[in-house]
Amino acid sequence: MAPPHVLMRLLLLSAAASAAAAAGDGCSTGCDLALGSYLISRNQNLTYIASLFDIPNYKTLGLYNTKYPNLDYIQAGDRLNVSFTCGCNTFPNSAATYLAGSLPYKVSTGDTYTTIAGHFNNLTTSDWLARTNTYPENNIPDTGTVNVTVNCSCGDTNISPYYGLFLTYPLTGLTLAAVAANYSFNSSSQLELLRKYNPGMDTATSGLVFIPVKDPNGSYRPLKSSGQLLFFCKLIVLPH
Ligand SMILES: *[C@@H]1O[C@H](CO)[C@@H](O)[C@H](O)[C@H]1NC(C)=O
Ligand SMILES: *[C@@H]1O[C@H](CO)[C@@H](O)[C@H](O)[C@H]1NC(C)=O
Ligand SMILES: *[C@@H]1O[C@H](CO)[C@@H](O)[C@H](O)[C@H]1NC(C)=O
């Protein structure tokens, strides 16, 4: 039998490989929770926003929006953190997978992917809806349901075991560095970490970025798999 440190190394390598695949494209599993940063527009109330994210009672969003003492006083121009399940989805016409929330949206007469994406305030785009749904762009049935896909992250053991809850943030004019600073990732090493979670987004000012955020209990949520990994390592190392 191989010495324990070799087994441990093998385990770490295989766990890292599967988690890398789960970081987005080519995922095999998702995670139960991701957040999205939703910039509230005029005439949008919380009941409506919660309904877009399939949340029956907007008050449950209080958990992820502790900076607002009372959600009933939140206004247009404020950012609301919305919660959703970050699933591993398959494209309609290929076996390729990607991580996203998939939110059922009941179509009304005249809806297009553009009008539907418009309700989600840059958390998705009409192009992305067209790629992830089966209806042709100019022929969405009035009685149909469109799956509104909002990209998300579940973390990545190759990058850090300490972050397992992520906020999907539409840049809309800001850079990754500016958004990172708003979420207390200020130092150059912290920014370097966020760059790893957001490859190719260093100079972008549009599109989505993923920022690690704290749990309702006030601490960063570690990656789930890291707990299991420690458990397995103990199992193998302890007998020696
Ligand atoms: C909330 O917004 C929806 C959609 O715009 C509207 O139908 C509803 O009447 C609004 N509810 C309240 C309490 O303002
Ligand atoms: C979601 O992620 C995919 C890559 O998996 C990317 O091609 C797509 O543009 C992203 N969608 C949005 C709205 O940023
Ligand atoms: C969406 O993004 C566009 C382009 O950056 C911006 O003009 C618009 O205000 C954004 N809308 C919302 C609701 O954030």
Could you walk me through the main structural features you see in this protein, from its secondary elements to its overall organization?
The chain is α+β, with helices and mostly antiparallel strands and 240 residues long. It has one domain. Helix content is 29%, strand content 20%. The protein is built from 7 helices and 6 strands; from the N terminus they run αβαββααββααβα. The chain has helices at residues 4-21, 46-52, 113-118, 126-132, 176-182, 188-197, 224-237, and strands at residues 31-39, 79-90, 97-106, 145-151, 166-170, 208-212. It has a 6-stranded mixed beta sheet. A hairpin with a 6-residue loop joins β2 (79-90) and β3 (97-106). The longest helix has 18 residues, at 4-21. It is globular and about 50 Å long. The chain starts with a helix and ends with a helix. Bound molecules: 2-acetamido-2-deoxy-beta-D-glucopyranose (3 copies).
